[in-house]
Amino acid sequence: MTPGCAQLRSRGHDRASLWVLSGNDRALRFYESARWHCDGTQRTDSIGDHPVHEVRYQRSLQPIESVSRF
């Protein structure tokens, strides 16, 4: 777990959310490799006169349970 996620967990949070620019495939792959997933929520913000399309990613802050192997 990243230090930021660990800090959120230590403050009692069990989930985290972040927004990623739609179409930023490199960032999407990065977050997905770190156990974040797109929940389907979208929004459009503006930077000046330019619309900015974003998608929301979330992840659990619960530790991964170790799996017993036989």
Automatic annotation (TrEMBL):
UniProt cross-references to InterPro entries, sorted A to Z: Acyl_CoA_acyltransferase (IPR016181)
Protein name: N-acetyltransferase domain-containing protein
